Amino acid sequence: MRKLVYYVAVTLDGRIAGPGGEFDFFPLGDERQAAAYSAWVNPLYPETVPTAYRAAVGLTDVPNRNFDTVLMGLGSYRPGLDEGHPSPYAHLRQYVVSSTLRPDEADPAVTVVPSDPLGLVRELKAEDTGLDIWLCGGGKLAGALLPEIDELLIKSYPVIAGAGVPLVDGAFDPTVFDAAERTAFTNGVTLTRFTRR
């Protein structure tokens, strides 16, 4: 059975975005540090680079390595939609969980799921595609899907937001994960893979 993997950037105080959904405050380091970080991460997780930016980083024809499906909440989908990218990950099957987004507002390649994200994930996990499912955000969706999250890929940035969207926003449900591997970068970012215990 394939896994649901929550791959996301997070601040030191556990925020994946600011109070208004902003994410441009995550520090990337100087030009050399940012380039080294991208050169390591992008080939490892090429499918997580939005379609509109894949050519610029040399990933145009690179096949998916880890995921063939992306699952996101409206807060994760809306920025691309507002910038004129209604199909942000055209190289993946795309699902947006939202009770307020109308299907006609989204690209035809994006499936809008108005309810029962747990049921959707259980159906997707039962498919035998050979690749996993990427949960790219947001915090409320992660809270609803916590029972089905198998792995966390946490990009921890050396910044404190003070307020904003939490990594997981749901009911109190202590869930233990083990750190399986960790890589530190010169720009201060650490990438840690956690597996569900």
TrEMBL record:
<feature type="domain" description="Bacterial bifunctional deaminase-reductase C-terminal">
    <location>
        <begin position="3"/>
        <end position="190"/>
    </location>
</feature>
<dbReference type="InterPro" id="IPR024072">
    <property type="entry name" value="DHFR-like_dom_sf"/>
</dbReference>
<dbReference type="Pfam" id="PF01872">
    <property type="entry name" value="RibD_C"/>
</dbReference>
<dbReference type="InterPro" id="IPR050765">
    <property type="entry name" value="Riboflavin_Biosynth_HTPR"/>
</dbReference>
<protein>
    <submittedName>
        <fullName>Dihydrofolate reductase family protein</fullName>
    </submittedName>
</protein>
<dbReference type="InterPro" id="IPR002734">
    <property type="entry name" value="RibDG_C"/>
</dbReference>
